[in-house]
Amino acid sequence: MRPDMPADHPTEAERLLRTAAQYPEDREPLFLQAAAHLELAGDRDRATGLYDSLLAGSPDHPHLVKALKAANLWEYGHEAEARAIIDGLRTAAPTEPTPWEIVAETLESHDELPAAHDAFTTALNLLLTPGEEVPYPTHSLLVGRHRVRRLLGLDHDDWDALADRVHPSQVPLDELHDPKRLWSLGSDNPAELQAEITRLRAELGSYRTALSRPFPVAVLHWPESELTELLAAYPALTAEYPSHEAHLSQLETSLRDLAATGTPNLGIVTATVPSYEAFAASEQSSPSNPDLLPQYATTLAARGRATPWPPPRTSPCWCTSGKPYRDCHGTPSS
What we know:
The protein is mainly alpha-helical and 334 residues long. It folds into three domains: 9-166, Tetratricopeptide repeat domain (Serine Threonine Protein Phosphatase 5, Tetratricopeptide repeat, Alpha Horseshoe), CATH 1.25.40.10; 168-212; 217-327, no CATH class. Helices cover 60% and strands 4% of the residues. The protein has 16 helices and three strands. The chain has a three-stranded mixed β-sheet, with helices on both faces. Helix 4 (62-75) runs parallel beside helix 6 (97-109) and helix 6 (97-109) packs parallel to helix 8. The longest helix has 22 residues, at 190-211.
């Protein structure tokens, strides 16, 4: 959610806000990116104004916006208001991992370690079912909880063992989260400093892998009505989409195959015929060209339109059937 480090955060925020005015359908992700730049620039009051502007409407991700607002408020002296928002979020019990992560890390950063531990644990109990696959977006919750437990001096439990299994770095979590590492950074012993530099480089390697993908690897999801309209207008695409049922099945299979190869940050973008036609026109190509489809998916993802995959097992399936994911396309036979 946080941007990379351009030279001028206020200028980048203004550019994003101008883009939001041109593309109101993308207002929410663009406002969130602009608010992040404003926070980095120290203009936290204005960032709060952007969060309030989103909440005054009907944001697609209200819990995320509230969590970001709470984190920002606490950073510039509005602790009581931030705590009230956090309490409300914990009562609401969102089924997305990101708001929980922001809440827990906000509490952790302000030395509220028991409360941070409780937030991480509540989120994992809500979002994960023991014995089932761990969705990629929840990995950071497991790792964050492990870190807080090390700071609290708590013994390993089953969630900690799971965090060790999903952790991608060769450096064990126990070593990365060892509070004594902080002491070595202030050491005058060259050997200790060199050892810490080696550990930090290994840790940085895993972050670079994630940062190399600034947006999810996304696949297109055509709702049934949109796919019917698309194929009626461009029958050449029937080879790509023989039926809506086959399209949904292939989408899930493609994502599972990507996940099996270790590809992180997978997502789904919902396509519409008018949007696709506009994209084809911008590329000076025909919508009948199947080569445009992955480019269109990438463009939607870059504009913040991707929904992380897989969803939590108990959340509604991405296909909009209304069934929980685990009872729909989340079953092994789907």
